[in-house]
């Protein structure tokens, strides 16, 4: 693990990591906090789901636009975005307390999601500048970033649970707004001590931007089936647990799955190999469906717990290597936006996977849902393998 110590000992990196971790924490808090708050305010899980869905949709659709703004005007514009995000969350609280109709709550949630600052994308775009061209440190940095995402999705719901128990769901919204805004401001201040790409206002404000890169388009398309598989597993594990007569087991299995991914990501970044990055990524893309398939044969909770460890192992390395490839293929001056597109595709895939798996689990059982997720992930692995030549070179600016 010495590579991580070397990364964190690099001047200013520890501050960047901590501040972006705080700035990104709302990603792990908001969905559950909004769901619980709206359900409590309306006594309807259906309405709560619609508002939480609007939050996710706003985040997915707004991310590329936010990235383009940062590319054109610099990371200082993360602060106004964080202000919009915080204001949107507080508006959800205010409207809920006033008994506003669900469309108004959904609109406020969409504003909060659309204002979520792309701190993840900005940090990823800065790693080559902060750490230089050392492949060993860059691989470790992108692995560390993927592990932080896992940490956010584990810690975020725990924060919500603690606040809801002690105060109420409305306080979770306020805490998320404060943490996100404060972390973003600290991140922007920390960035001032590091060189980075110069903002380029000459680039067109409209058009396809970094999607002009064939390599980036390939990574974006390949992120959809990965997300679909992950969304499927998020439904399959609770469905399996319910079928076993222990609904609470679903949360434990999901935590084990995420923990296995995080540990695997740390190991991946700690021991970089000389294998070309593209080849590494292709292997992880192929491993995702292969490692997930054995879950179909789980006959008991103990067996499923062992199998989700295997299924989780390729996740963080796959995402880390994909992010590093984005850095390689993104056109100069578009990195912040470029990193948002695979994430948007991943979230879209997760949403589709959850919807399809929910329907299949109800009609045909959780094994059918799992097979669908494996099949889609396998098709994605084939797609990126066939288009692997597009991942080799950065396009001309």
Radius of gyration: 20 Å
Strand tally, please?
A: 0
Describe the sheet with the most strands. none
* Residue share in β-strands: under 5%
Count of spatially separate domains: 2
Class inferred from helices and paired strands:
mainly alpha
Q: Which whole number gives the mean pLDDT? A: 86
What order do the helices and strands come in, and which of them pair?
Layout: H1 2-9, H2 13-42, H3 45-73, H4 78-97, H5 102-114, H6 119-131, H7 135-166, H8 169-191, H9 214-243, H10 249-270, H11 277-292, H12 301-312, H13 315-329, H14 335-364, H15 366-386
Short description:
The chain is mainly α and 397 residues long. The chain has helices spanning 2-9, 13-42, 45-73, 78-97, 102-114, 119-131, 135-166, 169-191, 214-243, 249-270, 277-292, 301-312, 315-329, 335-364, 366-386.
Question: Key features?
Answer:
mainly alpha, 15 helices, 2 domains, Growth Hormone, Chain: A
Written description of the protein model:
This protein is mostly helical and 397 residues long. It folds into two domains: 206 residues, Growth Hormone, Chain: A, CATH 1.20.1250; 189 residues, MFS general substrate transporter like domains (Growth Hormone, Chain: A). The protein contains 15 helices and no strands. Helix 9 runs antiparallel to helix 10. The radius of gyration is 20 Å and the shape is globular. The two termini are 37 Å apart.
């Amino acid at each position: 693990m010495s590579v991580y110590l070397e990364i964190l000992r690099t001047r200013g990196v520890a501050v960047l990591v901590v501040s972006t971790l705080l700035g990104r924490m709302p990603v792990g808090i908001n969905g559950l906090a909004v769901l619980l708050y709206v359900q409590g305010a309306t006594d309807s899980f259906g309405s709560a789901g619609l508002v939480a869905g609007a939050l996710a949709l706003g985040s997915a659709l707004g991310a590329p636009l936010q990235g383009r703004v940062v590319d054109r005007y610099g990371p200082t514009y993360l602060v106004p975005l964080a202000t919009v995000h915080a204001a949107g969350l507080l508006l959800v609280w205010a409207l809920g307390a006033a008994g506003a109709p669900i469309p108004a709550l959904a609109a406020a949630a969409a504003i909060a999601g659309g204002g979520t600052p792309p701190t993840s994308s900005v940090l990823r775009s800065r790693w080559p500048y902060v750490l230089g061209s050392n492949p060993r440190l860059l691989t470790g940095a992108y692995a560390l970033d993927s592990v932080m995402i896992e940490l956010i999705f584990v810690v975020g719901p725990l924060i919500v649970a603690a606040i809801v128990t002690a105060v109420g769901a409305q306080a979770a919204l306020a805490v998320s707004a404060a943490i996100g805004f404060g972390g973003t401001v600290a991140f922007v201040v920390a960035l001032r001590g590091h060189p980075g790409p110069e903002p380029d206002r000459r680039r067109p404000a409209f058009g396809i931007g970094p999607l002009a890169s064939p390599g980036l388009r390939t990574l974006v398309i390949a992120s959809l089936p990965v997300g679909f598989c992950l969304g499927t597993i998020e439904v399959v594990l609770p469905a399996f647990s319910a079928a076993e007569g222990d609904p609470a087991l679903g949360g434990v299995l999901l935590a084990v799955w995420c923990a296995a991914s995080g540990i695997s990501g740390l190991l991946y970044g700690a021991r970089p190999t000389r294998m070309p990055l593209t080849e590494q990524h292709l292997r992880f893309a192929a491993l995702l469906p292969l490692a997930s398939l054995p879950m179909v044969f789980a006959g008991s909770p103990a067996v499923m717990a062992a199998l989700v460890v295997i299924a989780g192992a390729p996740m963080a390395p796959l995402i880390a290597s994909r992010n590093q490839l984005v850095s390689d293929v993104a056109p100069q001056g578009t990195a912040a936006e470029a990193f948002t597109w695979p994430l948007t595709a991943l979230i879209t895939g997760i949403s589709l996977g959850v919807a399809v798996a929910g329907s299949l689990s109800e009609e045909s059982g959780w094994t059918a849902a799992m097979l669908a997720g494996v099949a889609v992930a396998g098709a994605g692995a084939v797609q990126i393998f066939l288009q692997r030549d597009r991942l080799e070179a950065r396009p001309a600016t």
